[in-house]
């Protein structure tokens, strides 16, 4: 009986350490809400395959809200315009340098807007292209060629960029890949199962890296 109670208590304590992740809501008119099934599907994949304990109820958090500090990992996506006011930029900067992680996945069309707005967040930092041997490409599953191409639009090579605070990668920008399309329900984009599996594995790498660094 004591053993059963002990096991139950340990299980309860482990459940209590479940982590929350969120989708970032921003201004400017861009569709921050695109790919609604993407992050929930990635969370389920990670919990089933890499032993994470992430709350399957994915939250939404506004870029200027103090609630942002409740989430160790935030995902941002969209096709269009992004706008950060001064308070947004300061809040996001404080979140990232205090230990948070932001993954921005360009859903095609976001790049010219987000790169401009990130200069408000970090005026003295640049997006740096990550080499294929960066640990984020092998934290769980090996991607020796770097970021995979998931959803084809214009034939350009996928690229991964980062912003660092000292030696820590605090922001990942995935471009010309469209990982989020591969995370969505299969019927949404009809991507091949092999592409969806690559997208989920790369997403698991990102989650694991963000939680451990």
Give an overview of the whole structure.
The chain is an alpha/beta fold. Helices cover 37% and strands 18% of the residues. It has a 7-stranded mixed β-sheet. β1, α2 and β2 form a beta-alpha-beta unit. α2 crosses α7. The protein is globular. The protein starts with a helix and ends with a helix.
Search tags:
7 helices; 213 residues; disordered N terminus; 7-stranded mixed β-sheet; 7 strands
Binned strand content: 15-25%
Question: What percent of the residues sit in helical stretches (DSSP H or I)?
Answer: 25-40%
Number of helices: 7
How many DSSP-defined strands?
A: 7
- Radius of gyration equals 17 Å
Q: What overall geometry do the principal axes of the alpha carbons give?
A: globular
Low-confidence stretches: 1-16
Mean pLDDT: 91
Structural class: alpha/beta
> From N to C, what is the helix and strand string?
HEHEEHEHEEEHHH
Distance between the termini: 39 Å
Order of strands, widest sheet = 2-1-3-4-7-6-5
Major beta sheet summary: 7 strands, mixed
Quick structural summary:
With 213 residues, this protein is an alpha/beta fold. The chain has helices at residues 2-16, 38-49, 86-97, 111-121, 179-183, 186-189, 193-212; strands at residues 21-25, 59-62, 73-78, 101-106, 128-129, 159-165, 168-175. 37% of the residues lie in helices and 18% in strands.
Question: Which helices and strands, and how do they pair?
Answer:
Layout: H1 2-16, E1 21-25, H2 38-49, E2 59-62, E3 73-78, H3 86-97, E4 101-106, H4 111-121, E5 128-129, E6 159-165, E7 168-175, H5 179-183, H6 186-189, H7 193-212
Parallel strand pairs: 1-2, 1-3, 3-4, 4-7
Antiparallel strand pairs: 5-6, 6-7
Helix pairs in contact: 2-7, 3-4
